[in-house]
Design goal:
By secondary structure, this protein is mainly alpha-helical. Helix content is 73%, strand content 0%. The chain is built from 8 helices and no strands. Helix 4 runs antiparallel to helix 6 (111-126), helix 4 (59-83) crosses helix 8 (153-173) and helix 7 (131-147) packs antiparallel against helix 8 (153-173). The radius of gyration is 16 Å and the shape is globular. 39% of the residues are buried.
Length: 175
């Protein structure tokens, strides 16, 4: 079992460095340092609340589902960050290229990735064609977290899973 865990850790770090080092370019950095905020609290809360409160049906209902999913998704994230207090890559791997003012809380799972997937999933469930736009945006937010040196790929994958599961549960319950 320890060999499997060592392989997973090595693979995680290798994928992290691929994203964190191989794509370094000033323009990419500028774009991803802005796109990453689409998964932040301000953008996700504003988008879901404004859709819920001001959009016509069925968008309003979907906005409410996304808002509930967003709020609910942060419960498992908070629990997991306490249970698995993983240090962020830039704190562990000295070769990490990081952004200005990096976060210092725990890395696992990615809260930004959780948030963006919990918000986009209800819209994709309701209108599958939106997935061609929203899913790549959510994936870029997740990738930006690695690019900026803040999360490992497994943090991002876990955030995607938590966000999607929470959203699907919310849509099923509040459908």
């Amino acid at each position: 079992m320890s060999r499997v865990m060592a392989w997973l850790k090595t693979s995680d770090q290798r994928m992290f460095f691929f994203v964190n080092h191989k794509f370094k370019h000033a323009l990419i950095g500028m774009i991803l340092s802005r796109i990453t905020h689409l998964g932040g609290a301000t953008a996700t809360i504003a988008a879901t609340l404004s859709t819920w409160l001001f959009a016509p049906q069925p968008w309003s209902r979907i906005g409410l589902q996304a808002f509930i999913a967003l709020a609910a998704s942060h419960i498992p994230v908070a629990v997991m960050k306490k249970m698995y207090p993983r240090l962020r890559p830039y704190l562990v791997l000295p070769e990490t290229i990081t952004c200005e003012k990096p976060l210092k809380d725990h890395s696992f799972p990615s809260g930004h990735t959780t948030a963006i997937f919990s918000v986009v999933a209800p819209f994709v469930v309701a209108f599958p064609l939106l997935g061609f736009i929203l899913i790549p945006i959510a994936m870029i937010v997740g990738m930006s977290r690695m690019y900026l040196g803040l999360h490992y790929p497994s943090d991002v994958a876990a955030g995607c899973l938590v966000g999607c599961l929470t959203a699907f549960g919310t849509v099923a319950f509040f459908g």
